[in-house]
Amino acid sequence: MAYIIDGKQISQDIKNELREKVTQFKENGKNIALAVVQIGNDPASSVYVNNKKKACEFVGIRSVAYELPEETQQDELLKLIDDLNADHSIHGILVQLPLPKHMNENAIINRISPLKDVDGFHPQNVGALCIGQPGFVSCTPAGIIQLLKRSDIEIAGKECVIIGRSNIVGKPMSLLLLAENATVTIAHSKTENLMEVCKRADILIAAVGRPKMFTKEYVKEGAVVIDVGIHRLESGKLCGDVDYDDVLSICSAITPVPGGVGPMTIAMLMNNCVESLKLQHME
Ligand code: NDP
Fold first, then answer.
1. Mutate to test the pocket of ligand 1, among 48, 97, 169 (most ligand atoms within 8 A of CB)
2. Which residue is catalytic, options 119, 202, 227, 241?
3. pTM score, two decimals?
4. CATH class for the region spanning 28-114
5. I want to staple 163 with a disulfide (CB 3.0 to 4.6 A). Which of 54, 187, 213, 257 is the partner?
């Protein structure tokens, strides 16, 4: 029977640990604050933003909300980012994506100070990850490394196949696994013989955004399966990129959806906020 990797519990453990650290910081007069900027009121974004605020409250981080209307101009947002960059009482800046179509996502991400970029999306942080220097790491892949480590799953020397090469999941995931001494393959929509490539994996990480695409035909017997995808079916139930019920009989461990990778993303955001104190004092 496959081991079910409990992301909910592991994320709670991490938040408990962070809460203790933050309490100690507060005792030494150091308070952490995260600015959360949302443009428009996309319902999915509002859910994510609320969950982030709740996590901040639990951990003891002050969250400062900026809710701007959909028609906000890019210059206004850039000005707000400049102000937050200069504000010493703010340690992390999070601009909830996706942005309205009239804004250039890269221009916004690039304007956030790399020292406050708790999402880990700024090119300087991506570059630092690439060459193994300190910086913020994208939360979802960082959370997956924690899931593996805290479940005592060996990474070093293993064949890891990631399907998906996005800037926020697939690419940073590959760099983190490489840093853990895995042998890494990144597959994508142009990969030939995808099934064969996936079947090589000791650790298979699915991040394509296609509901239940990965059936047991893609999975080597005994592999560890990490499902990043998240989709709401017509029935209202959530599912991932992996056909969970089908794969369960063949893998050795698997993350469920919900309750796998999802909760880890917010836990690692909290971790990055705590790390921001350290990074900002390295200069
Ligand atoms: P993107 O859409 O940015 O990237 C998807 C990737 O999958 C691309 O690299 C694409 O290839 C590849 N792909 C798409 N279809 C296929 C296919 N048929 N065969 C092989 N590769 C394919 O997605 P994200 O990385 O942003 O997200 C992936 C999934 O993870 C989504 O379901 C998203 O909702 C979820 N997600 C969950 C998070 C969480 O906290 N749980 C956080 C972030 C994302 P190509 O580059 O060639 O187009």
1. 169
2. 119
3. 0.97
4. alpha beta
5. 187
